[in-house]
């Protein structure tokens, strides 16, 4: 079996919270504030240019907030569904998701590859994802019928508790950028590469710091590595905060 032959939903069943949950409220809050000011300046007979400025600012902030909400609630699921479906043969038999959160990618991988054992690791910080807790991930796994193939561990991605070459597929979605400083992020990427079996794939989706990871992976793999774009569905308020993907195969 290569992967499931069934049509899979872009978004697995369950509740996956919101990434960095305070961010969309900031965007939408400023948008609402500027729109209120635009209304008040109109009522106060302010110059048209002033009203237009506040109106445009308000609409831009609201649009940014809505883009963020779409990315966290729908866009990232669609992107990862396509990335996993495009991995090809042979399918992975062991998957590690680093910074798994409430299981969006880990569960999608378990559904896509029904013969695979999936492991998710996280430090379970709610500042990175709302309601981030192993019990929430377990509930999502049960809702999708994959709880028997998903193992959750509390672990630091800069010091993963696995032997070298333990996994055929290693994924990280919007997680490595939360590690500080840059040297620790490089260590996290190095650990992901260490845990990857020869012939396996490392797939990372992240924000602009992904260029750092590309440099580290280039040194580890011995070949240039470059991130590629994945479109507006993972624009976190706009193109200035867009996600990109690194997809690297570890040469046997």
TrEMBL record:
SUPFAM superfamilies: S-adenosyl-L-methionine-dependent methyltransferases
Keyword Membrane belongs to the record: yes
Superkingdom to which the source organism belongs: Bacteria
Pfam families: Methyltransf_11
Domain Methyltransferase type: 96-204
An individual GO BP term: methylation
Keyword Methyltransferase annotated: yes
Gene Ontology MF term list: S-adenosylmethionine-dependent methyltransferase activity
Entry keywords, A to Z: Membrane, Methyltransferase, Transferase, Transmembrane, Transmembrane helix
Signal peptide: none
TM region(s), chain numbering: 25-44, 51-69
InterPro entries per the UniProt record, alphabetical: Methyltransf_11, SAM-dependent_MTases_sf
CDD domains: AdoMet_MTases
Protein name as it appears in the record: Methyltransferase domain protein
């Amino acid at each position: 079996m290569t992967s499931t032959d069934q049509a899979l939903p872009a978004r697995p069943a369950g509740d996956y919270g919101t990434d960095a949950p305070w961010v969309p409220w900031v965007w939408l809050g400023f948008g609402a504030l500027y729109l209120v000011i635009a209304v008040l300046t109109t009522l106060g007979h302010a110059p048209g240019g002033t009203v237009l400025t506040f109106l445009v600012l308000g609409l831009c902030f609201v649009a940014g907030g809505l883009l963020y909400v779409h990315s966290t609630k729908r866009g990232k699921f669609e992107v990862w569904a396509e990335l996993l479906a495009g991995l090809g043969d042979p399918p992975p038999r062991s998957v590690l998701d680093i910074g798994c959160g409430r299981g969006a990618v880990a569960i999608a991988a378990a559904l896509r590859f029904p013969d695979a054992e999936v492991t998710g690791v996280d430090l379970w910080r709610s500042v990175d994802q709302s309601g981030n807790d192993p019990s929430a991930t377990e509930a999502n796994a049960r809702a999708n019928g994959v709880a028997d193939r998903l193992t959750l561990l509390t672990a630091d991605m800069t010091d993963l508790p696995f032997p070298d070459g333990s996994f055929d597929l290693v994924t990280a979605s919007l997680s490595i950028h939360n590690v500080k400083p840059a040297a620790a992020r490089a260590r996290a990427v190095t650990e992901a590469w260490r845990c990857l079996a020869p012939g396996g794939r490392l797939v990372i989706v992240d924000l602009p710091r992904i260029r750092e990871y590309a440099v580290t992976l280039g040194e580890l793999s011995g070949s240039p590595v470059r991130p590629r774009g994945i479109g507006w569905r993972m624009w976190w308020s706009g193109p200035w905060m867009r996600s990109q993907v690194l997809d690297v195969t570890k040469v046997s």
